Fold each of these.
Amino acid sequence: MGDIDDIIRDFLLESNENLDQLDRDLITLEKDPTARDILASIFRTIHTIKGTTGFLGFKRLESVAHVGENLLSSLRDGRLTLNAEITSALLAMVDAVRQMLVKIEATGKEGDGDYTSLIETLTRLQGDHKVADPKSAALATPPAVMPPPTIEEIRKDLEIPESVQPLGEILVQTGAATRERVDEALSLQKHGDKRRLGEILVATGAALPAAVQDALQVQTESRTPALSESSIRVDVGLLDRLMNLVGELVLARNQILQFSTVQQDSGFLNTTQRLNLITNELQEGVMKTRMQPIGNVWSKFPRVVRDLATACGKQVRIEMEGKETDLDKTIIESIKDPLTHLVRNAVDHGIETPQKRRAAGKSPEGHLLLRAYHEGGQVNIEISDDGAGINLDRVKHQALERGLIPPDQAARLNERELVNLIFLPGFSTADKVTNVSGRGVGMDVVKTNIEKIGGTVDVQNRPGQGTTLKIKIPLTLAIIPALIVTSHGDRFAIPQVNLLELVRVEGEQARSGIENIHGAVVYRLRGKLLPLINLRRELQAEKHDELSSQEGPVNIVVLQADDRHFGLIVDEINDTEEIVVKPLGKQLKGISTFAGATIMGDGQVALILDVLGLAQRANVVSELRDRLAGDLAAKVESQRSDGDSLLLLRGPDDGRMAMPLSMVARLEEFALSSVEHADGRQVVQYRGQILPLIDLSSALTERRLQNRVSGSTAESVENAKIQVVVHSEQGRSVGLVVDRILDIAHEAIKIQRHTVRPGTLGSMVVQGRVTEMLDVKGIIQTADPDFFRETAAA
Amino acid sequence: MAGRKQFSTFLVEKLLFGVEVEKVQEVIRYQEMTCVPLAPPVVKGLINLRGQIVTAVDLRCRLGLRERAATRLPMNVVIRHEDAAVSLLVDEIGDVLEVEEESFELPPGTFSGEVRELIRGVYKLKRSLLIALNMERVLGVTEAAVRA
């Protein structure tokens, strides 16, 4: 029984490969119906499948393959010429066979699908090719009148590749049979004799059975393709294990290398050197075993394109360059769906109908080019079509209609930003949901999936002339180059793909170049503002932002996430290293800040930062979304209808606090030195008026502004700044001194827990975090009982 | 022998805990750990176990017991859990004990809420009680805690 299972498994493996090849061959053949060698190869494949299924007892499968084979043999004999209808029928047959193979794989049985109509179609196409239905008759060229077959052709017909000497030839050469008798037997075969050449020769007495046996032996030996001798099938699981082991070896090697730097023993050093070299080669070798040509994914596309083009009534020619470009298996797997989506998109949205193309002065047949090549340690994949390109007006219109961007913002977007709108979740230019568009993954998912494996997507739009999508992906995911940085004594690895540059700011430059705008730290990098994130802070290594008090140079790692650049402040920048990516345990899966972990040369574990996750955590990426969707105010405006906008603050005890934005007149920043005392209260001069200040922390926790001043020792009083929220009422203003302004959020005010703490109304959840709602009026009332009375009187 | 089970035992806060011996991959002394910022408090860090990265879960923290004194280094009980290894940080390693299935009892009602969830039951030994941990819960709930 085990033997049978093995046979079936081998059969399935082989057949699946063959079927993929069939898809490709049929498409090629449709383009060039005279390519006899391809036809022969198709015939051979189906013949093999038929033979094996018959042997294994899959009757249904055999019968489908059988009619397919018959139809193919008519084609091969020149009695029929391939046309679109026959191609479709043959493709349908391939699908049916594939379907049954899947069933066999899953259940061991061929299933009970009904293929009678398919069999009928195939039989009909084979039988009455002269009166095929009018549509296909118009397409099909009438069967050519074939000249009498030459021996060359017969040889080809007998499915023998060029490299293999025909049995007849061998027999003639060895003198076991005469050429005349062989030709005779060949022509018998040609006229319908189903026996093998050898059988005929023996039967007609042209050759001795033993001689035929010998000749067959000779033939088999020469036929055995070199490929099958030099390649074996290996379980992917085994390769993965090998890969892991090599990863371990690399680590052990790294440890020894570190150790070797303190060793003097030349013998040891030499051995280390050799170990180093061998490990490198081994690593490369094992990496190669996991590499697969991208053609493996692409091979499905001609079929996809053909089916889709037929469904849309378009003509599309697909061309592929760089099929042999190698990629890691895991990457191949993960780009399969995004690529398919992009190809479908190109055919469905990109390429126009033949009529439109003619009208635009283009050839009616659209052209889709897939290109893959290595560049700078990455693989580039381009999908270009010569279709209409992306209609930016339509994109804008759709985005507006779907409420993805507010109207006033739409007008301000430049071309590039408009194109990038197609990556927004929920975007689709398909006017109606067809079976092609409006289902499956959208462009946002394509982008996310590609970014997940450390890749990028870029659109080049040439209106009227086509679109090119350029995808850059890393070669492998298992071992990546990374920058090692230190923060708070711990080492972290940053994948090099996210890395743009390193900036070191020293001394005075650090103080003036790094600015703090309402709590958001930015750095002027070549005139552009770069938002900064402090790794220490993000990882909660410390609660307070000590950036301003930080002594010495500041190391900024400029990173890119989701098209957005930002700077990451780290304590130390160490080195770049090839690291082996290891997954984190389930207990840590939920932390999006880390992409995994790796083992450093000294055997210690270091975490790998997920730059996108980190950026999201620090709200750098969502800022982009904000910017794209309009500036903060525009966003606030557009959403006013269904909730309230809240200004989020950091409270004196580090808690989050909020106040309605409607109560905020302005946000200001004053130098602490400009705070004056008048009438026993703290005031500043503001727009020619005296603005009384109320320190939130003192109002809430009875701490005085003075304490804050004396508390900040590192800062000179002149440099210290205070953040002030100005509240105005009927011409009178008061300034609330706050610790830090965090953000503006949009949420319906629903206070969930009423507190007794003075100065607050209660707490609610804003942006998923518990936030205390400030009782602005109450605070003002307490600090300045006259404020409201006077306004009331005024 | 039917009705008997082997437990790998360890002490946490002088309590004797046990895990079915087949679930334990190995027991090792204290390993240096890399702490994981932002991780739930029960995750004390990551350990390099012969090239494999293992998450260390502090059993004291998981059971809501007080923190281990800084001078005392925990031991690692490495558990196979859903095809991955997780290390439990415990105070001391005990023997492998063979217990009678009849001596098993469900956790007494006096165990408080959450801890009760983490315990499968108790085996009555001659001199003490062996608390059998429910590994799925001990290691599983932390996943939920991360997502929360």
Amino acid sequence: MTTQWEGHYLDGRTAARQRVAIRLMRSGLEIITEKGATAWWPYPGIRQTQGSYAGEEVRLERGAEIPEVLLVSDAAFLTALHRIAPELATRFHNPTRRWMRAKLTILAAIAVIGITTVLYFWGIPAMAGLVASRVPVSWEEQLGQSVIEQLAPPSAQCTDPVRIQPIKEIVTTLTNTLPNSPYTFRVMVVDNPAMNAFAAPGGYIVVFRGLLERTQTAEELAGVLAHELQHVVKRHATRMLIQHASTGLLFAALTGGGGDPAAIGLEGARTLGILRYSRRHEEAADAEGVQMLVAAGIDPKGMITFFETLAEEGKGMPEFLKYVSTHPSTADRITRLQSLAAQVEGNPVKLLPDYDWEDVHQICQATGTQLRP
Amino acid sequence: MIGVKCPKCALMQMSRPTCKSCGTALNGPAPHPTPTQAFTTPPPVSSPPPPAGPIYMTQEAPPYMTQEAPPYMAQGGPPSMVDDAPPHLAQGGTLYSELDGGQIHWLTFHGTGGSLFGIQIVNMFLTILTLGIYYFWGKTRVRSYLLSQTEFAGDRFAYHGTGKELLIGFLKAMVLFVPIIALYYAPQFVEVTEVVKIVTILFVYGMMAVLIPLAMVGARRYRMSRTSWRGIRFSFRGGGMDFVKLFAKCSFLNMITGGLYYPYYETRKHAFMVSHSYFGNQKFHFDGHGRDLFGSYMLAMLLALPTLGLYWFWFQAKKHRYFWDNTTIDYARFRSAVTGGALLRLWMGNILLLVVTLGLAWPWVVVRNAQFTARYLTLEGSVDLTAIQQQAQVASPTGEGLASFLDLDSGFDFG
């Protein structure tokens, strides 16, 4: 076995590099310059900073802040060192055990995939639910208020006091099934042709004129309202905020010092992940909404009919879009709702039997007119 | 901390018994044996001289294989026969001591995406396991790998920063930064008059206008001080407040000229960064001027729309070449041969890789970037390496921490 090696020595004072011979001994290295001067480096004072990758020169440093450096280009030097001084050499990389590092890396990869999966599918949603349930309702109301100021300012609201009445009545019928709710529910209609409705945290439900006009019966609107009320009660908006922040932290950890380039790609992965959370919330609101309708004595078929109207509107949407959408595909939702409605029994009574539902569609035409005396 | 400060004349210098300027005794023991004591001539009596001739290789264990240490170690340490002259002068040889003037010196990047990916995976694992604390050590490992895999004129760079330093820098930056953020958002939660609101916002913007350039300089100072080639540290010695002034002045001029000042702005910033950079005691010089880029910049502005912004790559390449071609050290000049087309191909490839793999390909992107830099950058001319003395400088990691907060890049790549 070779105990004498060639290398280069850097003194840490100038950038010149000198050729040296290195002798491996049991407790240290003897370094001999071309002129015959020697230096003695005991192993415990040496640290290896390079040479753990194939093709990389072995770099040994000795001394405090500005070290002296020994460079050996042949990686077999390390193998010889481990043979001669097996105990003291444990501080140096061992090329013959490089497979160990590969194995550990693979184990780490498996662990990362495992931990990420568990956190993503179970840990983060569970944690978000737990934290959200401890957020005071007054905070949610404040948040909701600022959302309403942005998306449904008073100037855009349809305030016809007569036609808003039946809508409020439906909300009351539904919320009567939640006797202990800490929320004050407020419903408002916005003069906007979009077919949309949303819930803001703290009990705010906003229905767009476009959606209201497409409901044929009070039951259909009740379905939409029940769905949105469930978003409020289940604190989905608050959970989304927490999930958004936690996935941010998780993905920051995943960049592991990578910096910007890694972040670009991971942001895409994160967005996909958050969209999935959103779709889970929609499914939950659909399912709980049906339960709510039945508990309030309202026929859930109205909800299904309305989703069929939605499906009609959204025809021609490519199937793959369901993976990049905040909502599940309408067809999937109808199928699920039908099976849910079939499971529950109830004796629905006609909602608002004496009211002409078509009239409620006019709610925004009176916007701006004051209360009639 | 590297080096010691003379109590009398306040000169920052390497640890040594007395101040190199005024001769005052410096406190504290030398952190390591001074290099003149590192080597001893072989003891004539107890130890045979090293074998003459070529370094021999033998399959048999030589007699001293069973020895713990050279014989003179058993007799109370190495003999005190010390060379007065530095070893490379004592041996009369100047091996590898000069970068030859007739040669072109190349950068080579040896790293592979696979190795970096392995480092990344382990970093991810440990970062999650330590609830994020390991992040700083992971970052250090990545930097260390990238520098260690970069070779210049036959020698690799080395990185000497530690995760602990980055963590401390981050914490210090947080102490500075969190009150400012809090102040920025405070008016939304506390009832105050409009005047107080405006004063607060102005104060916060003022602080940012100081902190951003300080962070840019601080990050560069830290990273350069932790980088070495052939055992000699790089350093950055530009004053933080000088850069704050330059930054404020240039930003103002850029604003009132509607962006026309931009090439001057970029060049002046770059000039500040380069001309205060050192390799050991050898200074880098920059002799570029913004007016040389003005024409290209105007052309880039004109062609921005017709080329859908793609011409910007050609301007970037031109700027890159101009910046390097005007950078010198000793009697050598850097040369860059980057072209707009090459830069465009690099970027397109990188974005495609990242988007398709949802970010998993980032190690390969980093390797592509490093190979790209190495492929086009050379140093032509001569540098007398024996004349270059170690002159490491103290650098706190706070600026680095601030920069990571503000998401700034100091643009430091190999000096």
Amino acid sequence: MSGKHGEKGKSIWGKLREFLYGLAMHEAALVAIQKKAHFEHLFMLITMGNLLGVPIVPHYYTLRLLPYAVPRLAGWKRYMLREKDLTDKADFG
Amino acid sequence: MNAIIVLILGFVVAFIGYRVYARYIDVNVIKADPKKATPAKMYMDGVEFMPTSRNILYGYQFKSIAGAGPIIGPIIAIQWGWLPALLWILLGAFFIGWVHDYASAMIAMRHEGASFGGLSHRLISPRARVILLSFIYFYLLLIAGAFGNVVVSTAIGLKASPMAWLLLTIAGVLAGQMIYRWKQDIILTTVVTVAISLFGIALGSWVPSNAVLGDALANSRWLWAICAFVFCYFAAVLPIWRFALPINYVAAYIVFFGLFFGIIGIILKAPNFTLPAITTFSIPIGPLWPIMFVTIACGAISGWHSIVSSSGTARQLESEVDARPVGAGVMFLEMMLAVFALIIAGTIFTSAADYAAAIKLGPAGVFAKGVGQFLNVLGLPLDVATSYGSVMMIFLAITIMQLVIRFMRVATSELLSDVSPVFRNAHVGTVIASILGLVLVMTGWWQYLWVLFGGANQLMASLALLLISAWMVSEGRPVAWAFYPMLFMFVTTIAALLYTSYNLLVVKVLSGAVKGEALIGNTFMGVVALFLVVAALILAWEGYKAFRRFRAARGEAAPSKA
């Protein structure tokens, strides 16, 4: 969703289209992404939980899956361990 | 005064505020750096932290902050005269509103995307966070009460709106099913569901609620209040994609079509203000200072924006320099929406007596009549255009209300789950929130309820400005641009809440002036107002201690630097 060529490369219609997308669809897209991420995080917790001190499956399976999980590990751990409060859970849709 | 002059004045204030004042603070005080990595880039997880184009965020921020607030506030506040209301909208947005929205996004960005709870813990004290989160619960309750009242009074006063509400619900659920389950094309989904909603507006005009339900039921506050909270119950317990989100999506088109064409109607008609510029200092809900400053919250300054800016937008900004167009720019756009509402209320009545008769029934009737007149200029029949206005108002209110009840359900779980695990249950949290909201709607006088909602909103804004000031002091940067607005908002809002709670508890309850339902409503609202004042004072004291701590720390650090 990030502009590839920067703001200067966009026409006025391009900017207007993005504005309308933000107005109408962005929240819906965020919800779909969050829904997908929720299941991914659940899968990571089940398979890699022992990295956070929550062992769920035997280490053997964790080690077998580890190479596939490496690209996502940092982001997942930050998401799981970041302190969250009430205002993080607000829906602004 | 002609409405076009007022619109031009609004544009001039927005232009100077955005291009001169906001730019100065952005470049010289905050020193926004386009090369600095934002949390969206540093912590990109594709979920909460995601770099997004500023044009998209401009639309997202506007949709998230602009609801019924900037419309209803000015319509009520014109009772003091349109001039004080206009001055507060323009000056409030110029000196306070954009400062609050922009700096809320910047403070979150400079603290790794932390939310306000985390920031108050870090910058002020651990106690500040607990109080802030409890405060937010009551703030949400007052939003639910105030907007619930708008829904009920609109459904009773404008009989076309319930049918449109019903068809919007059907269209929204269908939109969710088409987008997320049937994977249909978004344009097809939008065309079908918006067409169903527009048909609902026309159907409401042809078949008003009293023709279907009879006069007794169509005028029953209980019926519409229960309908509103049952609607919110589904919004709170169902997955957001199933109910709340697609309904808001469809409603957004109806509302923005109305606003867009309404503004064109104003420009074409160019009406003159017919209501007096200034009426009197004191009106039945209270004196101009401090009550008017909380009656108009959104449009001038609103605490809700700080939650959206910090927890939502700040985590998506791809560059620090985007905070000014998204934070400050959108606030000025909302200011123009409030000016639009003021023009509606100030120009459509032939006399002050006409307005007084209309406002007694609630602000929805005033708005609907105004939108009707301005859409009529574009050729839409007056009765359908007025129905359209009433539907816009009910959509604006119910879409915010459902999100608030959903948020309260989460808040109940967060705040009370340590007391008993039963509060973790989504149904329990939703029922508690709905019952409290229902009590407010059924027993509170709507004008007091609106003032209390505005007061809580402005207090939330004061607390955000307190955090921003503490941040500025902690970094040894100029603080006056945030500190004086904070001081003004704090003093004004606490005075407004104390005045209102005194009126409710001493003048009405203790003197025995009210009985029955009104007794419950007045007592409840008065106690909530007192709670907000106490919470705000504790936070102010904690903030003061934090200021002293930061100043002392900088005083100790200074000699070693030299």
